[in-house]
Design a protein that fits this description.
The complex is a heterotrimer of chains A (about 400), B (about 425) and C (about 350).
Chain A: H1 16-19, H2 21-54, H3 84-117, H4 122-136, H5 140-154, E1 176-178, E2 181-184, E3 186-189, H6 197-229, H7 236-254, E4 256-259, E5 262-264, E6 267-269, E7 272-275, H8 276-303, H9 306-314, H10 319-349, H11 361-373, H12 376-405
Antiparallel strand pairs in A: 1-2, 2-7, 3-4, 5-6
Helix pairs in contact in A: 3-4, 3-8, 3-10, 3-11, 4-8, 5-8, 6-7, 8-10, 9-10, 10-12, 11-12
Chain B: H1 28-36, H2 41-66, H3 75-82, H4 91-95, H5 97-102, H6 112-129, H7 137-153, H8 158-178, H9 182-203, H10 224-251, H11 255-270, H12 273-283, H13 296-322, H14 325-333, H15 338-368, H16 380-390, H17 398-430
Chain C: H1 3-19, H2 24-31, E1 34-39, E2 47-48, E3 54-55, H3 57-70, E4 76-81, H4 86-91, E5 97-98, H5 106-110, E6 114-116, E7 121-123, E8 125-130, E9 144-149, H6 154-164, E10 169-174, H7 177-185, E11 191-195, H8 196-204, E12 212-214, E13 222-224, E14 227-229, H9 233-251, H10 259-263, H11 269-275, H12 281-285, H13 291-299, H14 302-309
Parallel strand pairs in C: 1-4, 1-5, 9-10, 9-11
Antiparallel strand pairs in C: 2-3, 6-14, 7-13, 8-11, 8-12
Chain lengths: ~400, ~425, ~350
């Protein structure tokens, strides 16, 4: 926007503040700044006056006090004598856990449903359409409640496993499906290398990482060999060996044993318990968000022109490889940006855990702690801070990934 | 060659064979089945699995629905009627229908008011949704909020009237002065509206609501599905203008305004709606002037509006970004200033592109209105989880109630998304 | 529906701001309605019936206060609050008083700056278990899964109880009573714990109440009472003495049946002072002389309110127990009206 004639040089007039483009933006910004400052001052002043009138103050010292309540699902050490801060951390970890699990399963559901919806099997594609429409058009809160109710009403209680004529029995005597959760056998080491179980698992993980690096080395070696001789050596047995031998050895050395859950007293004891609320929330979030992801996947696949499929077919690729090698890699670029926002939605929707009694951050910090201490403002602010940080972190990570798969335009 | 008719040879057919029907496997149902259901092994397996799934669902739910009891005063009575058979107890729906739809406090003799408001809503929203309808209907759309407010909340008609006059005055001032300078008209309009509201608000006699034509209903008494609909409609219609402003602000060259908008949008999009509702229910009261009370409905409307405005702003930003740069340059070259360019060139096109996205946000928002049940508002889900399931008569009727809620939301949301798809198809042709 | 809501409420807010700054009592009188915070639904204490009328034990206290101050027991606006919202609602002035089975504790009284005006129900936290489990004492609950209705002091008491007895448990926190019930009935937890009165109320709604037993242990003191904002003593006095009036009325034998007869004057000066035919108690409170009469007339005396809403004749079937008059071995003891 260049002007041909210079504006007449007639000094500054007041009306220029609003009519002259050079000053106008400045005027507006000053007005906006004043309005912003005024409203902050107004709200802050009200807050101070209200708090003073009620005799309250803003203080975060309650976070150090013992919380006094127990949490049924905890990933870190916690008991009722731990601080409110610790309870909040337990909540944060639980939120991240359910969000992480739900992101994975929602992607799996979504991709399967999205691909099947484009299937040329009429019945299957219609079924998938029904799934997508039903789940997309009913509030997630209702789904969470429904699935939780199904969990508690349909699954047998531990009582049903008791007695000689029990109505339910454990699957293979290893897994117990109850309305309190699913109990699965827990592996542990009889004579581990270290005293703590965590260290032993770290050793196992280190071993697996080592195997992975070895596999990569084998791959590189095979490629080099292929380039040299034109024949790719068969590496399957080597890879298998690299993965299995150290793993089996480790397990034998440390004496892997399985602790099988058994009904003792009121509950199943032993093994790993995956709590009912976690399962309900996890499943509800996955299947709800899966419906949205299915639509994203479908749109992504449809965005790839048919010529690509035909070209791939002309090259003689099989149906499955066309999908894997040609269509999906290209569709991924279209799918990933909406996928990021679906992941964000899962994280945010996990806050509905309070409807099923899952101890996420909204239920601990924003629920029981808030109720017990009455520190509403502090708790809600901390709660928002956490979600904001989590959202920004997720979108940052996913954006980096997105940038890496993006079409490199030159 | 001429006589080969006579020299007919044995192996030449004399008569044309009649057309045979195509093989059974290539026609009708069989062909369709073969092509669509059993084209190869995987497909056949998928088909059989699907049929089994459908059969199992139907086997479990159909008798339950068919056996449903529609008339019974309580769950116990319902179970007596069923005599141990599996069957739904839909009686809870008929028995508590009014509570599910209107909440438990809305005066019974005033049910016609929300009903009428709902019918009028359809009329008012029609010209917005369907461009073919006469544009004059938009006048009614503009009047609708005031009519609906009066119908649902009742009380004196003077309140909505003053509000309407304020908008009218603001609009008039804007029309008059806005031609010269947009900013003058805009701010003048706002000032004019506030002057009218101030004067008008003072003129409304105290206690005018006491014996008004329609009994005043406090917003606390609203509930049921009506509350969901009201929150949805109110917040979406309020957040569209706010969203446009935020989107424009985010694109602005003025750093301060841009940053205010960016921070607002990113903040709101980064937190779950439920925390914003907590803000509305436990925090916001501290930010209003001391001794004043703003009712929960309004606080919730403020927070949900902010929430959806941030999402709508992002949709519109997408629409703005999708416009070719030439459009902006063309507007500039015509000598239009910023408000003119936006109003006449950019926004009409950008909004058109954004409509499907906005409708998606609206559907999402409407579904999210169920979250208000968490902060002790009795919307449809709140009614079910609270008073109805807690009552002695209907303690334990989950599926019927939840299924009903799911069905209501499905009908509305599916309807809207079908509209959105229709619109998308229609708008798509316009661009070719 | 759209913008006018905002404007309408803004004017309301403006009016409220203008008229306020006086005490709660003047606000209530000016408004002509009492805003009373109650629970979102606990049968017997506060729950809307099929017609949407609130009824229950806590509701009766609200109605009595409204009758005393405004002369009309129906002039109450019931504001349903959750465990989370109740204190903010009271602190921010959204409600004038809170009658939501709230336990009187030190920190709520002192740290949160509220004033408990008395106790209308002496409760304690108890346990309910299905009879078939064969549990007879809470100490046998090692390893049990316990459903808790969150939002009150229950979680804390429970944690303390199990800790001090050195037994383990698994808590399942549930937001609403209805959902906790569902969990408990489906066997997703072995035990349901909340205030004993709430347990009785809940059990009353079961299909087969006799299949469930309340364990003998009461693990906490839960004095439930109405509360008001700290600092507004005139208003606090009104609520306190309305509650005391109901209790005294029972002690003195004033019932809704003989109320008008008694109000004409008796030879018991305390009854006369309570019902306003003698003395100037009403005036001291800033009300008229007949406030006490109206408070009792609203729903009867304490005993009648109890019997009607949660007493042994009702499905909830609570015995008076601790909530009997002090003359009958209970804890109810109203200071004298003089």
């Amino acid at each position: 926007m260049s002007t041909l004639t210079d504006p007449p040089n007639t000094g500054f007039r007041l009306s220029m503040l609003i009519n002259d483009t050079r000053y106008r933006s400045l005027t507006f910004q000053v007005i906006a700044a004043i309005a912003l400052a005024l409203s902050i001052w107004y709200l802050g002043n009200n807050l101070i006056q209200n708090l003073r009138a009620a005799g309250l103050n803003i203080s975060y010292s309650f976070l150090g006090d013992p919380s006094g309540y127990d949490i049924n699902q905890r990933l870190v050490e916690y008991d009722s004598q731990s601080s409110h801060m610790r309870a909040a951390i337990v909540g944060v970890l639980n939120t991240l856990l359910v969000a992480f699990l739900a992101c994975i399963t929602a992607t799996i559901f979504g991709v399967i449903a999205g691909v099947l919806r484009l299937s040329n099997n009429w019945l299957v594609s219609k079924l998938m359409a029904v799934y997508v429409e039903i789940f997309r058009n009913i509030p997630v809160l209702i789904w969470i409640i429904i699935i939780f109710t199904i969990m508690t009403a349909v699954m047998p209680g531990p009582r049903a496993f008791r007695g000689d004529n029990a109505t339910s029995s454990m699957l293979f005597d290893l897994f117990a499906f109850t309305n309190r959760g699913v109990y699965i056998p827990m592996p542990w080491f009889e004579h581990g290398l270290f005293a703590s179980a965590g260290m032993n698992w770290l050793v196992v993980i280190a071993g697996l990482i080592g195997s992975w690096f070895a596999t990569r080395r084998i791959g590189i070696w095979a490629t080099a060999k292929q380039e040299e001789t034109g024949v790719r050596p068969k590496t399957l047995l080597m890879v298998l060996g690299v993965w299995l031998v150290p793993f089996v050895l480790l397990m034998l050395i440390m004496g892997l044993t399985w602790e099988v859950p058994a009904l003792k007293g009121f509950n199943f004891k032993g093994g790993i318990k995956i709590g009912g609320p976690l399962i309900a929330l996890w499943f509800a979030l996955s299947i709800y968000t899966g419906a949205f992801i299915a639509e994203n996947v479908r749109a992504g696949i449809q965005a790839i022109s048919k010529g690509q499929t035909e070209a791939a077919a002309a090259l003689g690729l099989r149906q499955g490889r066309i999908m894997n090698l040609v269509i999906l890699p290209q569709a991924l670029r279209v799918i990933i940006p909406p996928l990021i926002s679906q992941y964000l939605n899962i994280t945010k929707n996990s806050s509905l855990a309070i409807a099923v009694g899952y101890a996420d951050i909204t239920a601990t910090l924003g629920g029981i702690t808030l109720n017990q201490t009455g520190r509403a403002i502090e708790c809600v602010l901390l709660l928002m801070l956490f979600y904001l940080t989590a959202s920004l972190a997720i979108s940052m990570v996913m954006n980096i990934y997105n940038a890496s798969v993006k079409l490199k335009e030159r | 060659m001429a006589d080969n008719k006579n020299n007919s040879v044995a192996y030449v057919a004399e008569t044309m064979l009649p057309e045979l029907p195509p093989p059974a496997r290539e026609t009708g149902v069989v062909k369709w089945l073969r092509e669509n259901l059993f084209s190869n092994a995987t497909n056949s397996v998928l088909t059989i699995v699907s049929i089994i799934v459908i059969y199992m669902i139907a086997q479990n739910t159909l008798p339950w629905i068919m056996n449903g009891v529609w008339q019974a005063p309580s769950l116990a009575a319902c179970r007596e009627v069923l005599e141990g058979q599996s069957g739904a107890c839909f009686a809870v729906l008929t028995e508590r229908w009014n509570q599910l739809i209107y909440g438990f406090k809305y005066p019974v003799d005033a049910y016609w008011r929300p009903n009428l408001a709902f019918v009028l809503l359809l009329v008012a929203i029609a010209p917005v949704l369907f461009f073919d309808l006469p544009r004059k209907m938009l006048i009614f759309t503009a009047l609708y909020p005031f009519i609906a407010f009066w119908l649902i909340w009742g009380g004196t008609i003077l309140g909505p009237l003053v509000a309407l006059l304020g908008f009218a005055a603001g609009g008039y001032v804007f029309q008059t002065f806005g031609k010269g300078s947009f900013a003058v008209g805009f701010f003048g309009g706002i000032v004019a509206a506030f002057v009218v509201w101030g004067i008008g608000g003072g003129l409304i006699p105290e206690g005018a609501s006491e014996n008004a034509m329609l009994t005043a209903v406090p917003s606390r008494d609203l509930g049921g599905f009506m509350l969901n609909l009201m929150l949805g409609v109110t917040c979406v219609s309020l957040s569209v203008p706010l969203g446009i402003a935020l989107a424009l602000g985010r694109q602005s060259d003025m750093p301060l305004i841009k940053w205010i908008c960016v921070i607002f949008i990113e903040f709101v999009r980064g937190v779950p709606l439920i925390t914003l509702l907590f803000v509305a229910s436990v925090m916001l009261a501290y930010f209003f002037p001391p001794e004043s009370t703003v009712d929960l409905f309004l606080r919730v409307v403020i927070m949900i509006t902010m929430f959806s405005a941030a999402y709508i702003a992002e949709v519109i930003r997408g629409g703005l970004a999708a416009l070719p740069k030439g459009q902006y340059e063309a507007a500039d070259s015509l000598g239009l200033d910023y408000p003119q360019a936006m109003r006449l060139i950019i926004l009409p096109q950008a909004l058109k592109i954004s409509i499907p996205g906005i409708v998606n946000v609206a559907v999402g928002l409407f579904k999210d209105t169920t979250l208000v049940s968490v902060i002790s508002m009795f919307d449809l889900v709140g009614m079910i989880r609270g008073p109805i399931l807690a009552s002695t008569e209907w303690n334990g009727v989950y599926w019927e109630l939840l299924g009903f809620a799911a069905l209501l939301f499905f009908v509305v949301c599916y309807g809207i998304s079908q509209y959105s798809q229709w619109l998308e198809r229609r708008l798509a042709t316009d661009h070719r | 529906m759209k913008k006018t809501v905002f404007l309408g409420a803004l004017t309301v807010a403006g009016l409220a701001a203008g008229a306020a700054a006086a005490g709660t009592m003047d606000d209530v009188k000016a408004r002509g309605k009492l805003n009373c915070g109650v629970t979102t639904g606990l049968v017997g204490f506060a729950a809307p019936d099929a017609n949407g009328e609130w009824e229950g034990f806590d509701v009766a206290v609200c109605r009595a206060v409204a009758a005393a101050v405004l002369g009309d027991p129906k002039a109450v606006e019931f504001v349903p609050t959750t465990g989370k919202t109740r204190f903010t609602a009271l602190a921010s002035g959204e409600i004038d008083m809170l009658a939501r089975n709230t336990t009187w504790t030190f920190s709520r009284d002192v740290d949160l700056k509220f004033e408990f005006v008395g106790v209308n129900y002496y409760d304690g936290q108890g346990f309910m278990v299905p009879k078939e489990l064969g549990v007879s004492s809470a100490k046998e609950l090692d390893g049990a899964t316990v459903c808790i209705q969150t939002g009150t002091t229950t979680e804390l008491n429970l944690a303390d109880f199990f800790r001090s007895n050195n037994i383990s448990y698994e808590p399942v926190p549930i937001e609403t009573n209805a959902e906790a019930q569902q969990q408990y009935l489906a066997g997703a937890c072995d035990v349901y714990t909340t205030d004993a009165s709430g347990l009785a109320a809940t059990r009353a709604t079961f299909e087969d109440p006799s299949a469930h037993v309340l364990l003998p242990e009461i693990i906490s003191k839960e004095p439930l009472g109405p509360l008001v904002r700290h600092g507004d003593h005139e208003w606090g006095d009104v609520v306190r003495w309305t509650l005391n009036a109901l209790i005294s009325a029972e002690e003195l034998g004033v019932t809704s049946a003989n109320l008008s007869e008694m109000a004409a004057g008796t030879n018991n000066p305390e009854i006369n002072r309570l019902l306003g035919s003698e003395g100037t108690l009403g005036e001291m409170l800033g009300l008229d002389a007949e406030w006490g009469k109206r408070a009792v007339a609203a729903g009867g005396n304490y005993g009648e309110v109890f019997a009607k809403n949660i007493g042994e004749e009702t499905p909830i079937g609570l015995a008076r127990g601790l909530n009997a008059q002090w003359t009958e071995g209970g804890l109810l003891y109203s200071p004298p009206f003089r």
